[in-house]
Amino acid sequence: MRVHLGCDHAGLELKSHLIEWLTANGYEPVDHGPFVYDAVDDYPVFCLRAAEGVVEDRTAGLDSLGVVIGGSGNGEQIAANKVKGVRAALAWSEQTASLAREHNDAWVVAVGGRMHTLDEMTRLVEVFLATPFPGDERHVRRIGQMAAYEDTGVLPPLPDSALDGPPPAVDA
Q: Domain of 106?
């Protein structure tokens, strides 16, 4: 599996570590930068490229995922999600890393380089990469609703239960 990586200065050390770890574990890392430390670099430059790399690979039928890394991972996740077709998820626990794949078929995981130890972050990435998307109908349906909105800008219809209005107030 090919793994596209992008980060900012706060994720540079983890990215270097992950490239070694990925290679040792049979993955093919693709480094989208940065390549040197710059305390004022702009993460979108690198994270957008990593996310685009994932989309290009998957469109070509290749098995590919991505990892974006920053101080918190929040901005990097937002940047990756701006790439059409990408679903990027912020992972802060093994459970959020696995659920990103199981429920959302996330293609990119974001991690915070200042939030966890090197070993913890490596484990989050490991869980994300190893977790398959089982394709349960309800998750496929929800992903389809988001994809359709991304393509058309038309909101999905409300379910019948939402058309009745809010529930009545309960006296305390």
A: 2-152
> What is the side-by-side order of every strand in the sheet holding 2-7?
28-31, 2-7, 64-70, 108-112, 88-90
Per the annotation, the verdict on 126 as an active-site residue is: no
Is 11 inside any structural domain? yes
User: What percent of the chain is modeled with pLDDT above 90?
Assistant: 92
Question: Which class for 77: exposed (0-12), middle (13-18), buried (19 or more C-beta within 10 A)?
Answer: buried
Q: Which of 103, 120, 126, 139 is an active site residue?
A: 103
Question: Three-state SS string across 144-164, please?
Answer: HHHHHHHHHCCCCCCCHHHHC
Query: Is 94 among the catalytic positions?
Result: no
What average pLDDT does the structure give for the chain? 95
Which residue in the list 9, 52, 76, 116 is annotated as catalytic?
A: 76
Number of domains in the chain: 1
Low-confidence ranges of the chain (pLDDT < 70): 165, 167-168, 171-172
Q: Tell which residue, 40, 36, 13, has the closest CA to residue 114.
A: 13
Q: How far apart are CA 57 and CA 61, in angstroms?
A: 6
Q: Is residue 113 included in any domain, yes or no?
A: yes
Other C-beta atoms closer than 10 Å to the C-beta of 163 total: 8
Alpha-carbon dihedral angle through residues 12, 13, 17, 23, given to the nearest 10 degrees: 20
